[in-house]
Amino acid sequence: MAIKQTPRIALAARAAISLAVGLFLTFSQSHGAEIGLLALGIFGLSFAVLTGLASVLFQKGLAAIENVPLVMVALLIGIFALSATDDAMAFKFLVTGWAIIAGAFELYQARRAGFKTAAGRDLLINSSFSLLLAVLFLLAPLDIVSQVGFFGAYLMMSGVHIGIAAASPAHSNAE
Prior knowledge:
Shape: globular
Strand content: under 5%
Number of helices: 8
Distance between the termini: 10 Å
Radius of gyration: 16 Å
Helix content: over 70%
Number of strands: 0
């Protein structure tokens, strides 16, 4: 029974993190580099801690260690974001790095799960969000206010999507 609920718990934790930080950015009056770096740091550390705990406590075998690379990257991004000073370039590089790595890793996980499964489709959609954010940050000449805004929008879209996936009955049958 706990194994069937594992994906839902991990997904719910990820959704809560994304939505909380996305809401913080949405209602923040400042969209400067300092707020963006703070939000990215909180997101990275929270993502690492909650995803790591969910993997250790609720998953077994290969599934328990499958998220380790993404947890480690999130931890490093969080630490670097919180240690960076008010620097728009650091924010851009850290968000772009997170988006590329998370998008590529989730695309790999989607392929492993199978694109025809509910989990595979959900990972593919979330991977697409991340990779689109990376492409936007790499190709568009964005100012810091736009960068922070687009990061907040990414978090909100990702959080809503993952939250819907966590509540979906398809995930309880998938594992």
